[in-house]
Amino acid sequence: MYSKKAKMKFKNSVKDIKTNSLKAWILAARPKTLAGAAVPIMIGAAFAFVDTNAHISVLPTVLCLLFALTMQINANLINDYFDFIRGKDDKHRLGPRRACAQGWISIEKMKRAIIFFISLSCLIGLPLISYGGWMMLLIGALCVLFSFLYTTYFSSRGMGDLLVLFFFGLVPVCGTYYLAAGSISCIPFYIFVVAFTCGLVIDSLLIVNNYRDIDNDERVGKITLVVRLGRRKSELLYLLTGYVACLLGLVFVANGFILCFALPLIYLFFHTHTYREMRRISKGKALNMILEKTARNILIYGLLIVLGLLFDYIL
């Protein structure tokens, strides 16, 4: 549980937030979620680095990272805006406070910010067409479209987890690999596997988020996968995301990446410990701590994959 001192510090800090201030925008962007956007790019680029013998295309790799980060911020703003206008961010909310609901960001400013970040993402992603062809335009358009559909449709119908596997796994990992590798015309099978494992690990963040909100989601009619499964099965699903991801890493061994499989097993220590804390807490705002630890675990997983891969390459 959070200490009284920590709670008081948080309350005092949010009182100081002025409407449409820089601090308000930073909170609205939810910087702690950006690890989920960066890790798939990092993994895709690392595999491209090894498979091309360190001859990757740097500019498209950087553009992929910037596109992912700006799209993640945009998705956060969209979620903030639509949850507020649909009355889902009310006094019953257990998660971190949202900018529109708290009056930190005005509705008009939020709408303009969404348009700005969509435009910025498109501007960043447009040059990728010269590296990957017009297919990049279609992928970019789908990213923008589903950043809206996630909040307005899929998350309320238990399909948000599928979007995570696709847009935080398959699309960023495979897309970054393809663009960074440049000279490689065919994406190897094990890249699709690592994309799926990455999506599984990142989905653990959505699971614990929905696990925390299960009672409120049921009250407002938001049918997430966690609502469908219930608490006990959702806890097991959370645990399995990490273990299945690491088990699928055996495909790396078959392709000569021994340490790329072995090092991420360290992640399971953190993942299992967080799972046990999640079960112990079970309900309430204290689950926000589990959310933060899960984000940390995702970053640990990504770094271990990259380190293992680079050690395999060097050795």
Automatic annotation (TrEMBL):
What does the organism's lineage look like at the top? Answer: Bacteria, Pseudomonadati, Bacteroidota, Bacteroidia, Bacteroidales
Q: Which InterPro entries match?
A: MenA, UbiA_prenyltransferase, UbiA_sf, UBIAD1
Localization of this protein: Cell membrane; Membrane
Q: Which gene encodes it?
A: menA
Which Gene3D superfamilies does this chain map to?
UbiA prenyltransferase
HAMAP family, sorted:
MenA_1 (MF_01937)
Q: Which GO terms describe its cellular component?
A: plasma membrane
One GO MF term: 1,4-dihydroxy-2-naphthoate polyprenyltransferase activity
Q: What class of enzyme is it?
A: transferase
Q: How does it sit in the membrane?
A: Multi-pass membrane protein
Question: Could you tell me which pathway this protein works in?
Answer: Quinol/quinone metabolism; menaquinone biosynthesis; menaquinol from 1,4-dihydroxy-2-naphthoate: step 1/2
Q: Which domain of life is it from?
A: Bacteria
Q: Some GO term, biological process aspect, for this entry: which one?
A: vitamin K biosynthetic process
Query: Which EC numbers does the record give?
Result: 2.5.1.74
Which chain regions cross the lipid bilayer? 58-78, 135-155, 162-181, 187-208, 237-270, 298-314
Q: Which family would the database say this protein is a member of?
A: Belongs to the MenA family. Type 1 subfamily.
Q: Could you tell me the keywords of this UniProt record?
A: Cell membrane, Membrane, Menaquinone biosynthesis, Transferase, Transmembrane, Transmembrane helix
Q: Which reaction does it catalyse?
A: an all-trans-polyprenyl diphosphate + 1,4-dihydroxy-2-naphthoate + H(+) = a 2-demethylmenaquinol + CO2 + diphosphate
Give a short account of what the protein does. Answer: Conversion of 1,4-dihydroxy-2-naphthoate (DHNA) to demethylmenaquinone (DMK).
Q: What is this protein called?
A: 1,4-dihydroxy-2-naphthoate octaprenyltransferase
One Pfam family in the UniProt entry: UbiA
